[in-house]
UniProtKB/TrEMBL annotation:
Organism of derivation: Actinocrispum wychmicini
Listed InterPro entries: Glyas_Bleomycin-R_OHBP_Dase (IPR029068), Glyoxalase_6 (IPR041581), VOC_core (IPR037523)
Protein name: VOC domain-containing protein
Lineage start: Bacteria, Bacillati, Actinomycetota, Actinomycetes, Pseudonocardiales
Segments forming domain VOC: 1-108
Length: 110
């Protein structure tokens, strides 16, 4: 499981469940566990008092066959485009979730 520290886990769970087509598996009064598939991995959202300062040190990379469509869907859900990157054989878009946590959406070939 990967856990994201955030101020409002209940609100952030709304974004991530829609983004990952998943559901909240457990609600532990401020700590939410979202199961992305029956065989894992899980995403945890944990309430903390501190604000996010700077770039998060761990982030998720999501992969799709249609990056532009997926980025459009995620921005409609509340994500913000941060950057676009490309290397030979792969292109990705860097986004932030509604709480400012960075993640990427990649597509082989670009």
């Amino acid at each position: 499981m990967v856990t994201i520290d955030c101020a409002e886990p209940r609100e952030l769970a709304k974004f991530w469940t829609a983004a990952l087509n998943a559901q909240v598996e457990q609600d532990y009064d401020g700590f939410f566990m979202i199961l992305t598939r029956a065989d894992g991995p899980a995403l945890g959202l944990q309430k903390v008092a501190e604000d996010l300062t700077g770039k998060n040190r761990v982030h998720m990379d999501l992969h799709t066959a249609d990056r532009h469509a997926e980025v459009a869907r995620l921005t409609e859900l509340g994500a913000t485009v941060v950057d676009e990157q490309k290397v030979p054989g792969m292109a990705w878009t860097v986004l932030s979730d509604p709480a400012g946590n960075v993640f990427c959406v990649g597509q082989p070939g670009g």
